[in-house]
């Protein structure tokens, strides 16, 4: 049995929200799961993960997907969601070396 840590889509049409779940790799995306360990909401720039449970499952052999791996890395580093407080920079000329 290949256990994966992946996103499960929730929310309305065109308003996605995701739960971070531990699931059997053979189950469908929004189907049966083993444990819910967090959530990720790209619309409101929020994410929350139970790192202790994620580490437990990774030690047991669960493989996180690329997206979940990036979320876990941000959560461990304590960095905010990339969209928070982001402002566009004006085009600046390249510095001459």
Please provide a written account of the structure:
The protein is an alpha+beta fold. The protein has a single domain (3-77), classed as Ribosomal protein S16 (S16 Ribosomal Protein, Chain: A), CATH 3.30.1320. 22% of the residues lie in helices and 34% in strands. The chain contains two helices and five strands; from the N terminus they run E-E-E-E-H-E-H. Strands 4-3-2-1-5 form a five-stranded mixed β-sheet. The model has no long low-confidence stretch (mean pLDDT 84).
Cα-atom Rg, whole angstroms?
Answer: 17 Å
β content, as a range?
Answer: 25-35%
Q: Roughly what is the average pLDDT, rounded to an integer? A: 84
What's the CATH H-level superfamily name?
Answer: Ribosomal protein S16
How many distinct helices? 2
For this structure, the CATH topology is: S16 Ribosomal Protein, Chain: A
Largest sheet: 5 strands, mixed
Give the end-to-end Cα distance, rounded to a whole number of Å: 56 Å
Strand order of the largest sheet: 4-3-2-1-5
List the uncertain runs.
none
* Multimeric state: single chain
What CATH architecture label applies?
Answer: 2-Layer Sandwich
Which geometry do the CA atoms define?
globular
User: What's the number of domains?
Assistant: 1
User: Given this structure, which CATH class is correct?
Assistant: Alpha Beta
User: Which class best fits the helix and strand makeup?
Assistant: alpha+beta
* Element string (H = helix, E = strand): EEEEHEH
């Amino acid at each position: 049995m290949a256990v994966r840590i992946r996103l499960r889509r929730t929310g309305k049409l065109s308003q996605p929200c995701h739960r971070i779940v531990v699931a059997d790799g053979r189950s469908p995306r929004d189907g049966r799961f083993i444990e819910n360990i967090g959530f990720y909401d790209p619309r409101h720039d929020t994410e929350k993960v139970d790192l202790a449970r994620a580490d437990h499952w990774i030690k047991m052999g669960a493989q996180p997907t690329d997206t979940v791996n990036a979320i876990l890395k941000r959560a461990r580093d304590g960095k905010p969601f990339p969209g928070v407080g982001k402002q566009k920079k004006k085009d600046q000329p390249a510095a001459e070396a």
